[in-house]
Design brief:
Blueprint (H helix, E strand, L loop, with lengths): L1 E5 L3 E2 L7 E5 L2 E5 L11 E4 L3 E5 L1 E2 L21 H12 L4 H17 L2 E8 L9 H12 L2 E8 L18 H15 L8 E7 L7 H14 L3 E5 L3 H11 L3 H7 L7 E5 L5 H9 L3 E4 L1 H6 L7 H7 L3 E3 L4 H4 L4 H16 L6 H15 L16 E5 L11 H7 L7 E4 L2 E5 L2 E2 L4 H15 L1
Parallel strand pairs: 1-5, 2-6, 7-8, 8-9, 9-10, 11-12, 12-13, 13-14
Antiparallel strand pairs: 1-3, 3-4, 6-15, 15-16, 16-17, 17-18
Helix pairs in contact: 2-3, 2-15, 4-5, 8-10, 12-13, 13-14
Bound molecules: zinc ion.
Zinc ion binds next to loops.
Length: 442
């Protein structure tokens, strides 16, 4: 079956003016201006659509969709925000996580996202199978997922920030990391599910857990992820606890590698940026979260110039408080201009970060572009809402006018969103169930 997605209004790909041909799960060919593909079984008229490679989200915490705009946490910076939420999150049960994951995945997908990365680090008693739950939900929705087996083993009694009730010991964490790697991690091209290992952040994990996680990642050929240099509080914590700046802690634990992508990366020195770039450490720029928690501004352009893969992330819904990937592009553009000026960060830059850059953070070269052999992951937007009326450049309009909902989404050659609705899922029922779960849980 060869499907020609024909004559798009605009497309974020070179040499595909007349669209692309999808065959099976992959892109078979790009169709240039004045050309027609040779053998075609079906055609999709894309003349009213702007076509993008499916967006790739590099940082999220699905469970936090249950505590958006929570009165105990709003209007706070990161550390007090976390301290207010930890005891609430400690009540998380498997059914809550299941609904939260389903809702977050659908919210992302409706915004044009085709690959999600989730960082789940919360393991209160009874929630030992958190990774299994997220994998089941992604599989049933057809969403591509890198699930980060997060971890915390440094609680308040050991000088860390989280309460004892949400952490596990190192032995339990490493054993479960190995279990989920064996069960779910698929390093092959086109993989629907990958596992990454993700000790949470310097103030909630031991140095030894970082070292052992890096060794395990090497053995199972998977990515490594953590929060780093998000706030100055974190930097002060590292200096006090380890006598090291956060990037030196990475170096000391075997994390200066292209297996690693970091969430936030706000507070780096110029010398640290050069070291990270040389080591090809990726950075997930979470603009909305950084603005909501007033954490600071990521130095995206210097990081990319130094050689780091640069991706975008919506971050957890309690700090964003939204899981909309198109919104993340607009935020990255606006905050980028505030730092670098109006001519430096363009709509093409943020589109590149949200697709190819994000894919590279996740260690993938099979998604994030519309090109021969890449996975057929696509997001198609129409410009017939009021917010686009009068727009001239269709690609720029998506970012500048604030597109937030895709009309069609394809993942691995299968339409998962049609006419702005998820295929085979009752959205109203899901929202009702998820809202109820949020009330019960909080
Ligand atoms: Zn986060």
């Amino acid at each position: 079956m060869r499907l020609w997605i024909k004559d798009p209004l605009a497309i974020f790909a070179d040499g595909a003016e007349r669209g692309l041909v999808v065959e099976g799960t992959r892109v078979a060919e790009r169709v240039r201006k004045g050309e027609t593909p040779q053998r075609i079984d079906a055609t999709f008229d894309a003349s009213r659509h702007v076509v993008l490679p499916g967006l790739v989200n590099t940082h999220h915490h699905f469970y936090q969709t249950l505590t958006r705009a929570h009165p105990s946490a709003i209007n706070k910076a990161l550390f007090p925000w976390l301290v207010a939420l930890y005891p609430i999150w400690a009540r998380l049960k498997p059914d809550h996580l299941r609904l939260a994951s389903r809702l977050a995945l659908i919210e992302l997908m409706l915004s044009g996202c085709t690959t999600a990365a989730d960082h789940h680090y919360l393991y209160p008693e009874g929630l030992e199978n958190a990774v299994d739950i997220e994998v089941e939900e992604a599989r049933s929705l057809g969403m591509r997922l890198t699930v980060s087996r997060g971890s915390m083993n440094l609680s308040q009694k050991d000088g860390g920030l989280p309460p004892d009730s949400v952490v596990q010991d190192e032995e339990t964490i490493l054993a479960d990391s190995e279990r989920v790697l064996k069960l779910f991690h698929d390093p092959k091209p086109g993989a629907p599910i990958r596992v990454a290992l993700a000790p949470c952040s310097p103030f909630s994990i031991s140095k030894d857990l970082m070292i052992e996680s890096a060794k395990l990642a090497e053995r199972y050929d998977c990515q490594l992820h953590t929060h780093l240099c998000e706030t100055v509080d974190e930097e002060a914590f590292c200096l006090r606890m380890y006598g090291l700046r956060p990037v030196d802690l990475l170096e000391a634990t075997g994390w200066m590698s292209s297996r690693v992508w970091l969430a936030h990366g706000v507070h780096f020195t110029a010398e640290e940026i050069a070291r990270l770039g040389k080591a090809k450490v990726g950075v997930s720029h979470c603009a909305a979260s950084n603005m909501v928690l007033a954490s600071g501004i990521c130095r995206t352009c210097e990081l990319e110039a130094a050689g780091s893969p640069l991706g975008l992330g919506v971050d957890g819904s309690a700090s964003n408080d939204s899981s909309n990937m198109m919104e993340a592009l607009r935020h990255a553009l606006m905050i980028g201009r505030l730092r670098y000026g109006a001519e430096t960060v363009t709509h093409r830059d943020v589109l590149r970060w949200a697709t190819d850059g994000s894919a590279r953070c996740l260690g993938r070269s099979d998604i994030g572009r519309i090109a021969e052999g890449y996975q057929a992951d696509l997001a198609l937007f129409r410009l017939d809402e009021t917010r686009f009326s009068g727009a001239h450049d269709p690609l720029a309009a998506l970012v500048l006018c604030g597109a937030h909902r895709a009309d069609r989404v394809m993942i691995a050659g299968t339409w998962r969103v049609i006419d702005g609705q998820p295929v085979g899922l009752d959205l109203a029922a899901l929202i009702a169930e998820h809202s109820q779960a949020a009330r019960d849980f909080a």
